Amino acid sequence: MTTLDPDDWSGLRALGHRMMDDMIDRLAGLSASPVWRPMPPSIRSGFTAALPVAGTGPEAAYARFTETIAPYASGNTHPRFMGWVQGGGNPVGMLAELLAAGLNENCGGRDHVGLAVERQVIAWSAAMLGLPETTGGLMVTGSSIANFIALLCARRRFCGPAVRRDGVEGAPLVGYAQEGVHRCVPGAFDMAGLGSAALRRIGTDDSGRIDLAALEARIIADRAAGCAPFLLVGTAGSVDIGAIDDLAALAAVAARHGLWFHVDAAFGALLALSPSRAALLDGIGQADSVAFDFHKWAQVQYDSGCILVREQQWMLDSFAQSASYLTNTARGLAGGAPWPCDLGPDLSRGFRALKVWMTLEAYGTARLGAIVDHGCDLAQRLAATLAASPMLVLAAPVALNIVCFRYDDGGPDLDGLNSDLAADLQEAGQFVVSTTLIGGKRVLRAAIVNHRTTEADVDALVAAICEAAQNRRHRSA
Ligand SMILES: *Cc1c(COP(=O)(O)O)cnc(C)c1O
């Protein structure tokens, strides 16, 4: 056998139909199934096998998928998954993944429709956020790499072309963000060789927004100390509490001090589609770059991150390379410049844009905006339910769709209790909530992102937590 295609496709067609039916049944029946199941040791050890020399065939491989993979997925498709800021995926996005896989496009470059679709998605994204038509962008794995790409563009623009050959020379580059910034931003400073300490983390006000006076004071002090401030990162939707910096004010600070203004809007960007909440993002259209994800609030399948840069030229300046076998031509398949491989670090790239394009094309932005509002409304409902429950205390203001709270019965080891409660609910398959630290205290965190989550799910969460807590206290009494 020297091709992987079957001689007769009929068996594979039938198998494909069965896979589709099984997956649709699974999605239609989510609420009757556990959110998550821990993997038993026998399942885990099934994935330490030797490299298979003779394959078992598609039927057997699918049987193993059904028995040993599908039941142990992480659960973020489930309406009661509120653990982290993760999207639930959507049916059209799922089918688009199949179509993209069938085409098997390499979207690194050349003149084909995959790149036209991606450029369409980038143009739509720029329009959504009020960025100009000169905006360039790329579909990437997620906001982590998108933030890194933005940092590299800012560095190249600040330092000039020589930085690409010689690296950073002279005064140490420093950047700024609020203390609730996602860990991938200091991570980007680390990866770029600037060191994570070069990102100055500025304090916040009561609602978790960056303190503007402290920010400007730090920029001035850094410059006086011989550092070279080059980048200001605004947060639009902090991962712990959903806080949004005053982006218009940050744009003004950046302009005053000659800094590149980047916004990490990983999930918050989708607020632009909510008529009642879009104003929270005022100023984002002035950014030099924005990182965000379609795989969170936009409910597109993983992975689908996006980086937008105000001038496509700034991406070319930062990433274009010449290689003779990759030379663009005026005609033929090797045309179509500029290619995505010259806008970012990847050469081979999958057709991520298709699932985004199909999701937007099929459902439209109004429906996605309504999902964003629904998540925020459910978070308010959860906060109100907590307020009526004597043992549950809200731990941070609810700006968007994230609710941080703590079970507090005045008993011992509340940090341990709250951690245990999250794990108890997860292991029972009832709910996935996570924990975080707020003001040094371990709290429960419910991030309501999934479009499938309902009011009944939110109400049941409060009841389940109280019950689990009473069980624990009862057992230890
Ligand atoms: C999720 C998130 C990130 C990281 O994005 P990935 O898509 O997971 O790489 C960065 N910043 C914020 C605010 C986030 O919520």
How many distinct folded domains? 3
Task: Please provide the ordered H/E string of secondary-structure elements.
Answer: HHHHHEHHEHEHEHEEEHHEEHEEH
Which CATH architecture of the largest domain is right? 3-Layer(aba) Sandwich
What is the fold-level CATH name, i.e. the topology of the largest domain?
Answer: Aspartate Aminotransferase, domain 2
| Average pLDDT over all residues | 96
Strand order of the largest sheet: 1-7-6-5-4-2-3
Task: Name the CATH superfamily assignment of the largest domain.
Answer: Type I PLP-dependent aspartate aminotransferase-like (Major domain)
Strand percentage, roughly?
A: 5-15%
Question: Compute the gyration radius: what is it?
Answer: 24 Å
Q: Mind summarizing the main beta sheet?
A: 7 strands, mixed
Which spans of ≥5 residues are poorly predicted at pLDDT below 50? none
Q: Look at the structure and give the CATH class of the largest domain.
A: Alpha Beta
* Small ligands present: pyridoxal-5'-phosphate
Question: How many distinct helices?
Answer: 14
Structural class: alpha/beta
Distance between the termini: 66 Å
List keywords for this structure.
single chain; 477 residues; alpha/beta; Aspartate Aminotransferase, domain 2; Aspartate Aminotransferase, domain 1; 3 domains; seven-stranded mixed sheet; four-stranded antiparallel sheet; 14 helices; 12% strand; globular; binds pyridoxal-5'-phosphate; decarboxylase; PyrdxlP-dep_Trfase_major; pyridoxal phosphate; Aromatic_deC; lyase
